[in-house]
Every structure is written in C-alpha cells, then in structure tokens.
C-alpha cells in the first residue's frame, strides 16, 4: 500500500474512532479489543450450554458468532499495528 494510501486509511480510522493521534487510536482500538474479549467470554459460556441442545442451528449460530468475534478482533489488531508502525514512521 502506498504511503498516501496508508495515511488516508489511518486518517479514516482516526476519524471513525474520534481521535487525533496514533497513540489515542491505538488505545481506543485496544479498548474495543478488550470489549470483544469480554463478549467472547460470555459467548463461550453460551456455546457450552448450546453444545448439548437438540437444535443444531442454535449451536451453529453460536459457533458462527464466535468466528465473527475472532475475525473482528483480528482485524482490529491489524489496524492497531498499522497505527503503531505509523507512529514510529515505519513502512
């Protein structure tokens, strides 16, 4: 990704996060990731209960939700790392 493209990408994220610098963006992203961790913990409890129900759709839905949470967490981590590189002036 070109430098201008990277800058625009991070600027868009900063606006969405309502921050004005990389360190605040990283802190906000880390907070969102912590909230996803909390949601994952709650969902794991639900998934354990639904593992034994006779309706496979219920268990499948919970499993799908867990996958979506993990993907969202991973995407936020990638963005957080991009802000970290930007802060250090890396490529």
Gyration radius from CA atoms, angstroms: 17 Å
The percent range for helix content is over 70%
Class per helix and strand makeup: mainly alpha
The parts where pLDDT drops under 50 for at least 5 residues are none
Characterize the overall form: elongated
Please give the largest β-sheet. Answer: none
Total helical elements: 3
Question: What is the N-to-C order of secondary-structure elements (H for helix, E for strand)?
Answer: HHH
Mean pLDDT: 88
Q: First CA to last CA: what distance?
A: 9 Å
- Share in β-strands: under 5%
Number of strands: 0
Protein name: DUF4254 domain-containing protein
Describe this structure as you would to a colleague.
Helix content is 85%, strand content 0%. It contains three helices and no strands. It has helices at residues 3-17, 22-50, 56-88. Helix 1 crosses helix 3. It is elongated. This is DUF4254 domain-containing protein.
